[in-house]
């Protein structure tokens, strides 16, 4: 098997594996430059499905013109080897023109607050790009189960909504965020950080962990927890906060008191690199 670049070919390979039987297809969509977080999704998909398909596609429609589409790290050969070692059967890595017609006019867009808050505030076209490409990939691969990292908790909530509202017969399986030994959330963008930035970036997970301790010790006030995290992050001179929010974990709606399981989510620029991280505060 080698890297598959066309829709026709990937469909043919899936049909070949399927061969008229009802097999389960696990799908892990990625933008490549795979790290342990992605590999954990692939390994889980391997355990739970007959066939595992991984896509590697840096999706242009989810980047705004001023963002890092051109410089986003890419190494498809390395991704292919890592994906196969982790249990993938098929690696689909199409070029842009294979996925998008020239001047294409069809997009999938979820209206409402869910795509406008948190990351949607500073990246207003981001989720339209994500839902469009994920819908296309779902149509191409037609998976049984699709695996997404909880690091992008808002993305998971939005994709779940899309799947429900567009009647896709696909199980969306959120998987735990994976961290480096010192707490930094794994991200393909971590390669942009120099030593000093990498050190200062630890303030994100440290603040989240301490906020969780405060919550476990009885602090339920959203404003107080948020302010604590903001003040903590501001101690680092290279950190520029995009947002720190605490919302209902299920629907991402605003809350004032943590009386149901909450998602604490943040996005912070460290130098030029925008990082996101989150943690759940669980209420039985
Ligand atoms: O999470 C990502 O890497 C991307 O947003 C996704 C889901 C692969 C769509 O391009």
Provide a descriptive summary of the structure in words:
- The protein has 284 residues and is of the alpha/beta class.
- The protein folds into 2 domains: 169 residues, HUPs (Rossmann fold); 94 residues, Pantoate--beta-alanine Ligase, Chain: A,domain 2.
- The chain is 39% helix and 19% strand.
- The strands form 2 sheets. A 5-stranded parallel sheet has the order 3-2-1-4-5, with helices on both faces. Strands 6-7-8 form a 3-stranded antiparallel sheet, with helices on one face.
- The longest helix has 22 residues.
- The N and C termini lie far apart (47 Å).
- The model has no long low-confidence stretch (mean pLDDT 97).
Q: Descriptors for this entry?
A:
alpha/beta; Pantoate--beta-alanine Ligase, Chain: A,domain 2; single chain; binds pantoate; 2 domains; globular; Rossmann fold; 284 residues; three-stranded antiparallel sheet
């Amino acid at each position: 098997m080698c890297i598959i670049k066309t829709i026709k070919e990937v469909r043919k390979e899936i049909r070949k594996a399927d061969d008229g039987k009802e097999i389960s297809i696990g799908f892990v969509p990625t933008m490549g430059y795979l790290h342990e977080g992605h590999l954990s999704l692939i390994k889980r998909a391997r355990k739970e499905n007959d066939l595992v398909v991984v896509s590697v596609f840096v999706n242009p429609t989810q980047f705004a013109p001023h963002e890092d589409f051109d410089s986003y790290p890419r190494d498809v050969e390395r991704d292919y080897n890592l994906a196969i070692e982790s249990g993938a059967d098929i690696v689909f890595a199409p070029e842009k023109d294979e996925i998008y017609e020239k001047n294409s006019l069809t997009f999938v867009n979820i209206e409402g607050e869910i795509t406008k808050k948190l990351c949607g505030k500073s990246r207003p076209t981001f989720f339209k790009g994500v839902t469009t490409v994920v819908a296309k990939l779902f149509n191409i691969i037609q998976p049984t189960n699709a695996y997404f990292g909880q690091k992008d908790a808002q993305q998971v909530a939005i994709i779940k909504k899309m799947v429900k509202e567009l009647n896709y017969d696909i199980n969306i399986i959120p998987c735990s965020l994976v961290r480096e030994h010192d707490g930094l959330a794994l991200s393909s963008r971590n390669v942009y950080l120099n030593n000093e930035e990498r050190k200062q970036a630890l303030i994100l997970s440290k603040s989240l962990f301490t906020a969780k301790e405060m919550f476990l010790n009885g602090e339920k006030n959203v404003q107080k927890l948020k302010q604590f995290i903001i003040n903590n992050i501001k101690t680092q001179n290279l950190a520029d906060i995009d947002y720190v929010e605490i919302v209902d974990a299920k629907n991402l709606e605003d809350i004032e008191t943590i009386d149901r399981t909450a998602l604490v989510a943040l996005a912070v620029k460290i130098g030029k690199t925008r990082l996101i991280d989150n943690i759940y505060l669980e209420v039985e």
